[in-house]
Amino acid sequence: MNKRFIKGSLATMIAMLSTNVLAATEVTVYTAFETDILAKYKNAFEKSNPDIKINWVRDSTGIMTAKLLAEKKNPQAEVVWGLAGSSMALLKEEGILKSYTPQGLDKLHAELNDPQSSQAWYGNDAFFNAICFNEIVAKQQNLPKPTSWEDLTKPVYQGHIAMPNPASSGTGYMQVSAWLQNMGDDKGWAYMQNLHSNITHYTHSGSKPCVQAGMGEVAIGISMASRGAKLKTQGAPLDVITPAGIGWESEAVGLVKDSKAAQRVVDWSISKEANELYVEMYPVVGHKDVKAVVANFPNVQQKMAKMDFARMGSERADVLKTWSDKFDGKSEAK
């Protein structure tokens, strides 16, 4: 009986030791990627890296940026993956992101990456704004098709437009920044004041205005071009319109804690394998060798606003305070 007991105890101990050896290292990754793509990215990474497990913490760009800044003295994230370049520039300035040179950097489009020395963030993809226009609702309401940002200030559109709150949505903030940078501050704020008269509500998600337009809840959603293309491909009665001066930005990855496991997450996130997943939704991705045509995605290249991402990061707090003081009263409840 004693021998059996000893053998049983040894077997249990060996099993426990084996379990500990095989247990995956967990990496906490903060993200603003859309919820419906997180599982795909996690599964692909963990298949290639079975000894590492990703724990996502997800929220919209503005909220995630604020969370990272609030945790500056006691960081909880190890990697930030899928956050706007302007936010990444601010996080670097605040000392939250570590300088790191990932494997495969030479394969990336430089214009999507941190432009400063001691690079700390790298573009996974570029995302663009658009106007999602429900053609059925427009016909019912006798609304003309808008072709410019100025068109959206016409009285005929009063109560028919939704757009993201820039304080909680990177999609919203990049369009506000595009208006300010390309119109000038005075004209940009005056434009937003006129547009505000026609806004029915501001959402806390960048894709939601397009989803609402696709469902007929509003006629017009200022939103993500990629979401508009996807919904149109799925059969939504949308026209995805890109007026001159559309906002755009890179979604990027960066290192918060300098561990080997966290570095491997960053390395994989810029790999060709990862970019082949990004390109399923975004037609412009970081890797030079990955290209695709996304069904119903509008031609954005000649409509892109000139964007200064460093300025977006440094002005963020002041711009958002001004915007919130003027317009937050129409925001949806969180």
Q: What do these coordinates show?
A:
This protein has 334 residues and is of the alpha/beta class. It folds into two domains: 2-126 and 249-285, Periplasmic binding protein-like II (D-Maltodextrin-Binding Protein, domain 2, 3-Layer(aba) Sandwich), CATH 3.40.190; 129-248 and 300-330, D-Maltodextrin-Binding Protein, domain 2, CATH 3.40.190. Helix content is 41%, strand content 19%. The chain contains twelve helices and ten strands. Strands 1, 2, 3, 4, 5, 6, 7, 8, 9 and 10 form a ten-stranded mixed β-sheet that branches. Helix 4 crosses helix 12 (309-327) and helix 6 crosses helix 7. It is globular, with a radius of gyration of 22 Å. GO terms for molecular function: thiamine binding; thiamine pyrophosphate binding. Pfam families: SBP_bac_6 (PF13343). This is Putative ABC transporter substrate-binding protein. InterPro entries: ABC_2-AEP-bd, Ferric-bd.
